[in-house]
Amino acid sequence: MAQSSAITSVAVEKRFLARHPSRRPWGAIALFLGPIMLYYAIFIMYPLAATLYYSVHSIEPTPGQPGLTTTYVGTDNFEALEDDWRFERAVKNTVKWGLIGPVLEIATALTLAMVVYFKVPFWRFYRIAWFTPMLVSGVIVGLVWRWIFNYDWGLLNTFLREVHLEEWAIDWLGARHNRNSPLGAVIFVHYWATFGFSFVLLLAGLTAIDEEVIDAARVDGANTLQVVVRILLPLLRPTLITVLILSFMGKMRAFNVVWVLTNGGPIHLSETVATYVQKRAFGWRTLDLGYPSAIAVAWFGVVLVGVMIIRTVANRLSRQ
User: Fold this and answer.
1) Which residue from 1, 12, 94, 209 has the least number of CB within 10 angstroms?
2) Which of 16-20, 52-56, 59-63, 120-124 has the lowest mean pLDDT?
3) What pTM does this model have?
């Protein structure tokens, strides 16, 4: 009876506030929402608007006096992308990463999530250990793996030489032996550092599945493989789509691991769009933010189209 009265009282109060907006606690609302809205406006909306503005302008030092001159150039910055071989290489590298990285990451994360879900021996340790790399700063990850991959005294090559596999001890971060090794090393390190996030999301999705469904399948004689293929994976499909999109977006804007590990080199062999934008905006000392802004806007469109394609294909497959 008391619970029913409390529910009725709350409902009456909600209807009263809806009819009388002036009675709402606007001061408290502003106090709680104000800081986050201010943060959103300063650090998200303003940079976004500035990037769009600069993408159609050229910024150059004012002749004969201090200061910068902003000139409207229309689509010139976007047209210049066609003749930029560095941008082309960065796009190719990032697209390769966007195709390989999510598949590798989700396959690993899903397998490990299943291992923990079925509570194999030491599953509690695995649950913590596999997520731990996510807790380490990307800068620290890059520094540690740069030491491991060092050609002369790195841990990996030292081990290979000790076991008499000198031919496998290559320059992992350089082009001395294999031009594909720098990009491959970057993809692997980023995968190692981030697959824990996908692992946690997929494990949460598995945990949310009603265990009664699994028990019913067991009663009907389903083995573990049949439970995984016919029950868990179909029910996990929405989570898999979300993880795939998040992983794809993460690869498309990867920066810190690349910057610390190879700085996009050598000769742009591991360059990504994010690192190239950083170099053009601040590393070349041209003071022209127009061209890198155009790169960022164009790449945002590419990523948006990629996400829409993933969602469309995934939704069609889910209906089958």
Assistant:
1) 1
2) 16-20
3) 0.84
